[in-house]
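// run 5 | inverse folding | seed 20
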């Protein structure tokens, strides 16, 4: 694994770091001004709800407004008083209280502005006019790459305003971005590792795995699966990989703990080989002290020997997650090495710029986009032979945002 994957990956990452990625300074300036206006408006709404002005970023002042002046229910306590962390504000917001909703929105926009919108233009190299992130091979225990200085893997895309930041990343003149994203690679890896026939059949037929799971868990026909059922099934599918229990799942789904427990039990009743596979990984961690990815990457898990229950539980979750997430990481690294070699042979200026876990971003001559897209798709889908097909979703555009 070290010889065949990690060592050949070094020049790939070195080239990516050297090439960097360009941004549109005007876009970030305009976005900064817009966010500043939005923050001021939210501030005014918060002060109106509170009946006074206060420092929104001050925990003691916020605590006083929420729990003393407005007398909102205390959800969680710390050594210094009632907590005002995100989980508390989210629970208060769900209860219908307006000011916690506004504060959450304020925090989200403020972090977006300070961490990305205002910071990224300051990191442009004056000689190249591009941002040069670092990619780290030996940080994440699962084998996933991490990014730093700046972390371009962590740009929030789950919210509309966060996703729109990708509009500010642009290709060089005469070039277009090409994005290639593995589709549900971790679930495909889990299907392969577990050998579960129901799981594998769904992927081989090209079915929507989340709809298929919803039909199984909710015991309805495929045609009767609703959008809410599919969303719940998607959460349950990924909860399986990460070893999430009934309590945490209930929080994600907005259901009772008992309902979440029933969902998990129903899931494993219908996908018994998945349950058996996960149990085998936990047993292996206890017996051998480690688990392995498909490429032979080991993750040692001493936590399972701890006398502390919570630490042991963490170890068991790591035992089920590491082979799946780590195998997905190995596969995309293999693809990166193969694509890098193929692009070197073409020598047409196409360059790999970023890796964001399951996604690769390239800069290609505008006239070669279709050909490059085909090359990337072929190499990514053929990077590793699984019992189910690997699938890649691609897009291209004049910004990173347009690729989706």
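// decoded
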């Amino acid at each position: 694994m070290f010889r065949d994957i990690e060592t050949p990956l070094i020049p790939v990452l070195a080239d990516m770091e050297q090439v960097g990625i360009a941004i549109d300074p005007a876009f970030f300036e305009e976005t900064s001004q817009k966010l500043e206006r939005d923050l001021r408006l939210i501030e005014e709404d918060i002060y109106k709800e509170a009946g006074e002005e206060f420092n929104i970023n001050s925990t003691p002042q916020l605590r006083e407004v929420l729990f003393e002046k407005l007398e909102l229910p205390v959800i969680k306590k710390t050594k210094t008083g009632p907590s005002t962390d995100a989980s508390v504000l989210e629970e208060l917001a769900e209860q219908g209280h307006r000011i916690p909703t506004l504060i959450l929105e304020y925090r989200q926009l403020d972090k977006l502005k300070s961490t990305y919108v205002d910071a990224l233009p300051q990191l442009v190299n004056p000689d190249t006019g591009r941002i040069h992130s670092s990619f780290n091979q030996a940080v994440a225990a699962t084998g996933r790459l991490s990014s730093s200085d700046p972390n371009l893997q962590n740009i929030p895309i789950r919210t509309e305003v966060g996703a729109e930041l990708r509009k500010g990343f642009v290709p060089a003149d005469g070039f277009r971005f090409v994005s290639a994203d593995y589709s549900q690679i971790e679930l495909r890896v889990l299907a392969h590792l577990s050998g579960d026939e129901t799981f594998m059949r769904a992927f081989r037929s090209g079915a929507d795995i989340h709809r298929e799971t919803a039909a199984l868990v909710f015991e309805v026909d495929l045609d009767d699966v609703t959008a809410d059922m599919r969303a719940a099934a998607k959460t349950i599918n990924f909860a399986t990989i990460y070893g999430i229990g009934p309590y945490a799942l209930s929080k994600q789904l907005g259901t009772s703990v008992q309902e979440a427990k029933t969902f998990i039990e129903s899931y494993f009743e219908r996908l018994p080989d998945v349950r058996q596979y996960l149990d085998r990984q936990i047993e292996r961690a206890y017996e051998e002290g480690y688990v392995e990815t498909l490429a032979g990457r080991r993750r040692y898990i001493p936590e399972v020997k701890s006398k502390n229950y919570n630490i042991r539980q963490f170890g068991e979750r790591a035992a089920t997650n590491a082979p799946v997430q780590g195998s997905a990481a190995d596969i995309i690294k293999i693809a990166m090495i193969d694509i890098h070699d193929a692009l070197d042979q073409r020598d047409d200026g196409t360059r790999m710029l970023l890796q964001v876990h399951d996604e690769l971003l390239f800069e290609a001559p505008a006239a070669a986009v279709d050909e490059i897209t085909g090359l990337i798709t072929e190499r990514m889908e053929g990077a590793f032979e699984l019992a189910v097909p690997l699938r890649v979703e691609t897009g291209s555009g004049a910004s990173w945002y347009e690729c989706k």
